[in-house]
Fold this sequence. Notes:
Elements: H1 32-56, E1 60-65, H2 72-83, E2 89-95, H3 100-107, E3 111-116, H4 125-132, E4 142-146, E5 163-166
Parallel strand pairs: 1-4, 1-5, 2-3, 2-4
Helix pairs in contact: 1-4
Amino acid sequence: MCDTCGCNVTESNRHLIEEDGKHAHTQDGSNAVEVLENLLSENDRQAAHNRHHFDSHGVLTINLMSSPGSGKTSLLEATVQALGGEYRIGVIEGDLETENDAERLRRLGIEAVQITTGTACHLDAHMVHNALHDLNLSRFDILFIENVGNLVCPASFDLGQHLNVALLSVTEGDDKPAKYPVLFRPPTTS
């Protein structure tokens, strides 16, 4: 699916191109571009389905993206501490291999479902849909999707979210994230 990184087929969309899958064969049997276009259109179809779930439960869904180590989980922790008494917050956590960030959030009392992507450097709508089976959306006002740490691929995939938030931060510097991460700083004028 992803021309940028090469992680075209993930475990969540593989069923579409396997032998009996909806897009297992193109009309001429050999056109890979058509298969990729079909997979992307299936992602968009699934994202619309996810959005319908979010809308029908009145859940604002926010896709949080940034580079690895820039403070996505720290921002979520601070957000929950600031808004947790006012809003019911849940998280879908994306990571290549570990459940460390989901465990950090759970220690704060946040319901967090982990998606481990393996080699895929982004979440797709099918992965998010699978995670929804482990959540009761009626328990949330806001659902954050903490995407895999990458600033290129995640922006290409509609997950069904209502908003995208990109956290911009200097990574791999100080071990302590900024007290107030900068989400957007307008350019200065001279």
